[in-house]
Amino acid sequence: MAQSLYPLDTVNYSKANAKTHAMSEVPELAKYLEGGRKIYSLDLLSGWSCPFANECLSKAVTVDYSGKRKVVDGPNTKFRCFSASQEAQYTNVYNSRSHNLRQLSEHPRNDWHMSDLLRDSMPANLGICRIHVAGDFFNESYFKAWMFIAETHPDRLFYAYTKSLKYWINNRDDVPDNLVMTASYGGRDDHLIATEGLRSAVVVFSEEQAERLGAEIDHDDSHAARPTLRDQSFALLLHGTQPKGTEAATALKALKGKGSYSR
Ligand code: SF4
Q: How far, in Å, are 62, 66, 197, 242 from residue 47 at the CA level?
């Protein structure tokens, strides 16, 4: 691979082994995992990297000099971001995502700087990459960096949920086939999902709600990742730790761990 012209550090890709089995069972996805290739994610600090988050908005915030953290919900939080809860609880998770966000956003980087960083840090055996189990596209240059990564790695598959809908819409005609996008409800621009006809995932509080909406529940991310389903919307069951006393907290109790919504 060509040497970058820019000084680079690294970002951390995380292994997503829990999903490998389910995905390798799907013929359309199995080819990306041939030869022992793996599924990874590239994660950023939740909330802090999500300019359009609204009903999900939560952040891990440091509360004292020891580095102790707690989750702070946004003003309109209806279902708490699961990733933010993880970041409050686990220091290594917080540090890794915080590092990634800093590396990608704090220096005056353009999309070329960012794609160099993403490419040079990418594990050689990456077959499928979920862009952001945690975090979102924090600006349009960063979205374009991922478009370039997908375009230049056609034998690998990339998929992402986003509430940063404008960045996607602005570049819609140029999104490569191996970058599969899903609009996620609960953001500040939800109205664009209908007006722009974006493929979407809605978080549901029960299996019955999904049925009423006529939306298939994606339990293992395979619907989100499959290129042939790129225009078909689907549902995700509520998951995670929800703020006490909310409708989401009550729904979560009823689901008893069946949830699949993992952000
Ligand atoms: S759910 Fe997604 S968009 Fe919302 S705060 Fe968490 S990572 Fe950001």
A: 14, 22, 25, 15
